[in-house]
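Renewal narrative, Specific Aim 1. Our central claim is that a sequence can be written position by position from structural information alone. The example that follows is taken directly from our test logs and has not been curated for this report. It begins with the structure tokens describing the chain, in the order in which they were read.
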């Protein structure tokens, strides 16, 4: 209640306020009820006066209307409106207004409401009939409405209200005096005495407080306050006794606390020393991990880089196989090293993520191309169904997504001896600025027992842990994948059955980004083509059907050469021939070469362009396919942009100069204009960087340390610097700071600097950017990563 809101008020004041609150509430309710009743009675009295007035003048009104005496009618109405309670009167004859008098408007007369409908109104109406007595027969000659104002009623009630309020006020003053005297004398003083004693009471045993005593009239009284006082007196005695005991206990407890505090201070000192030792140990671990990462990645960059350059040179079949073997072994070693380093980073809390714009379709296409070679070695079909995300861009860490895919697909290849590996990508849910994408990696391998599935994502765990196990691996890949997916806010799992393969899946939410340069632009002319796809693999057929349908190309997919021959004949018969035929090489009963040979023998198919798709492409196969009669040759998996360009060129929508179309001449090789300075102390890594840059049309200069780089930059204006970080004489960090300094004598202080370093720990990127570098590439350097960097910082 509002009267108890002040904590400083005494109980006497609160009691008085409460009494008066309920008193005024009751008085107000009674007064309102009385006023309503008085208003109703006064209205009824006024209404009766109106009816009497109407009965009095009815004869005059009927005579005036019967004899059409306007003077008499006006005189009668004037006498009626002269009454204080009449606001207006209107007379009607056959619904036509005859005369109106008074202050009330004519509109008010139209509101013919019954007198009982509303109690409170501005005006009240009375409707009446005017009848004339003719030969003892009443004849209605007209009607009328009379309005009387509620102000007359209000004025009468106002006096009653004033008298009622005056009476209530006098009673309230009288009641307040009585209540104040009674509460103050009998209650408040006695409670004040107890309250004062309570305030003075010291529970610590000091006897500065005063004892209260009962007055004579209270000693034999059994009212509530007397009982309260006696109880308080007993409480005083008890508190004094307990206070003495408590004081003694406090003294004993203080002695114990002093002893414990001394021991605790010694323990805290030991804990601080131990904490410092742990911090130093973690620092040493981090430094060792960074050192190991750098020392391992530096030679690995030379090995993998040199092998890539070697593979791009002219090799015979045996040399190519040997070089690819070295490359695969190096990549396998790098995977193991990366797993160990990543696991160590996770343990040390130093795993880092990028947040950049990237094309999901490009990521999956590039990843598929790298995985296809590994599948090729085991004669496995590899398919990536990425149609839903083909042209979508997101903000995330594409390297970490690729790392998870690499672990899961690599795992699938390892445990699959025949059949296929497929990646299915779908958009699980889509909101305004975010897509939840589901990745499923399915294999037709050995499968996993259900009870072992739940342990797969634990570190150092494999389904087969025996010493005679057939399959290798560290047992870290799935554990790292689980950590990466969960750190990106997603989930990961597996569904498997022994002998029926496995499906590993993970979901991640990606923030949408604006699409950048697309890999190809759709050309309407291609929609005029009619394409037949022949492939015995169901997943491949589904992928090609979805891809061609997304480009609005008329198509049909079939599973065998026999069905294809029948369909081609049906197209000729219906005068709707196919213009292109995509043919898989490895098919049962009739393979791709046999189907092509059959088609070439038929004159009616002379305009049909034939494209060979194969999962087992070898050097020299392109020439053989041309001799077989194919117009184009491409190995799976095929990027959508590559197949699109091949369709354009084979369909003569883009000229291909009448030569066999392959993935290499279907995509234009990027060339760059600009001069690049490579600052690198390792001679092998210099050769690797120079070889990659040469492929892109760039002739680079080299410096073995930061000091040599500064000397060159004083005389030569380069377009880009690729900067190693750990070098003798002057490292890359100091060199970058010197280049950015206005006091240095370099030609261009704003030249783009890209770190190309084996330092790949958490914080290394930020350290490079803080030193003045513009971008960062971790070793071993991948050609596609360097290519994206050149596109970003050089004009192609």
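The sequence written for that structure reads:
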């Amino acid at each position: 209640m509002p009267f108890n809101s002040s904590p400083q008020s005494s109980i006497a004041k609160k009691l008085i306020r409460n009494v008066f609150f309920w008193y005024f509430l009751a008085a107000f309710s009674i007064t309102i009820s009385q006023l309503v009743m008085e208003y109703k009675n006064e209205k009824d009295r006024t209404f009766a006066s109106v009816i009497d007035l109407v009965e009095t003048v009815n004869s005059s009104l009927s005579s005036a209307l019967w004899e059409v005496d306007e003077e008499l009618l006006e005189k009668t109405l004037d006498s009626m409106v002269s009454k204080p309670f009449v606001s207006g009167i209107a007379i009607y004859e056959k619904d036509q207004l005859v005369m109106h008098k008074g202050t009330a408007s004519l509109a008010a007369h139209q509101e013919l409401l019954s007198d009982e409908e509303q109690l409170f109104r501005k005006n009240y109406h009375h409707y009446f009939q005017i009848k004339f007595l003719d030969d003892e027969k009443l004849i209605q000659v007209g009607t009328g409405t009379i309005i009387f104002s509620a102000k007359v009623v209000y004025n009468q009630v106002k006096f009653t209200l004033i008298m009622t309020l005056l009476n209530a006020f006098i009673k309230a003053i009288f009641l307040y005096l009585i209540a104040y005297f009674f509460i103050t004398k009998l209650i408040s003083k006695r409670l004040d005495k107890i309250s004062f004693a309570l305030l003075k009471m010291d529970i610590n045993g000091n006897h500065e407080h005063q004892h209260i005593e009962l007055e004579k009239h209270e000693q034999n009284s059994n009212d509530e306050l007397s009982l309260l006082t006696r109880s308080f007196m007993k409480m005083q005695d008890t508190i004094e006794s307990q206070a003495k005991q408590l004081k003694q206990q406090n003294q004993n407890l203080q002695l114990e606390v002093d002893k414990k505090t001394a021991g605790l201070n010694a323990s805290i000192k030991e804990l601080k020393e131990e904490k410092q030792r742990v911090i130093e140990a973690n620092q040493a671990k981090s430094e060792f991990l960074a050192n190991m990462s750098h020392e391992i990645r530096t030679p690995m960059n030379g090995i993998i880089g040199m092998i890539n350059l070697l593979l791009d040179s002219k090799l015979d079949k045996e040399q190519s196989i040997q070089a690819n073997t070295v490359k695969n072994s190096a990549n396998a070693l790098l995977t193991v090293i990366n797993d160990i380093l990543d696991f160590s980073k996770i343990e040390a809390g130093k795993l880092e993520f990028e947040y950049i714009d990237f094309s999901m379709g490009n990521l999956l296409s590039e990843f598929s191309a790298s995985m296809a070679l590994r599948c090729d070695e085991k004669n496995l079909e590899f398919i990536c169904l990425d149609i839903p995300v083909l042209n979508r861009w997101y903000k995330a860490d594409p390297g970490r997504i690729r790392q998870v895919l690499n672990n899961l697909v690599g795992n699938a290849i390892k445990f699959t001896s025949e059949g296929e590996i497929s990646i299915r990508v779908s958009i699980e849910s889509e909101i305004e600025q975010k897509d939840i994408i589901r990745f499923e990696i399915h294999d037709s391998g050995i499968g996993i027992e259900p009870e072992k599935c739940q342990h797969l994502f634990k570190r150092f765990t494999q389904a087969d842990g025996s010493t005679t196990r057939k399959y290798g691996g560290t047992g870290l890949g799935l554990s790292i994948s689980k950590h990466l997916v969960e750190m990106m806010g997603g989930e990961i799992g597996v569904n498997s059955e022994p002998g029926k393969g496995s499906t590993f899946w993970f979901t991640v939410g990606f923030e949408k980004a604006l699409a950048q340069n697309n890999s190809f632009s759709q050309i309407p002319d291609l929609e005029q083509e009619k394409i037949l796809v022949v492939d015995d693999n169901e997943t491949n057929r589904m992928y090609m059907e979805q891809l061609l349908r997304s480009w609005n190309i008329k198509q049909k997919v079939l599973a065998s050469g026999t069905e294809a021959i029948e369909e081609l004949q049906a197209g000729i018969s219906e005068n709707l021939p196919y213009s292109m035929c995509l043919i898989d090489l490895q098919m049962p009963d009739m393979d791709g070469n046999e189907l092509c040979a059959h088609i070439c023998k038929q004159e009616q198919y002379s305009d049909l362009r034939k494209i060979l798709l194969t999962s087992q492409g070898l050097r020299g196969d392109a020439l053989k396919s041309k001799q077989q009669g194919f117009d184009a040759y491409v190995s799976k998996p095929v990027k959508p942009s590559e197949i699109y360009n091949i369709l354009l060129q084979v369909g003569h929508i883009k000229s291909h100069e009448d030569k066999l179309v392959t993935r290499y001449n279907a995509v234009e090789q990027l060339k760059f204009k600009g001069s690049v300075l490579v600052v690198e102390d390792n001679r092998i890594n210099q050769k690797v960087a120079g070889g990659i840059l040469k492929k892109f049309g760039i002739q680079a200069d080299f410096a073995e340390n930061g000091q040599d780089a500064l000397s060159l930059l004083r005389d030569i204006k380069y377009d880009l610097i690729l900067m190693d970080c750990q070098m003798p004489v002057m490292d890359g960090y100091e060199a970058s700071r010197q280049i950015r300094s206005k006091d240095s004598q370099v030609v261009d202080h704003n030249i783009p600097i890209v770190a190309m370093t084996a330092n790949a720990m958490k914080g290394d990127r930020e350290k490079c950017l803080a030193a003045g570098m513009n971008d960062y590439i971790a070793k071993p350097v991948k050609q596609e990563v360097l290519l994206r960097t050149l596109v970003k910082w050089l004009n192609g």
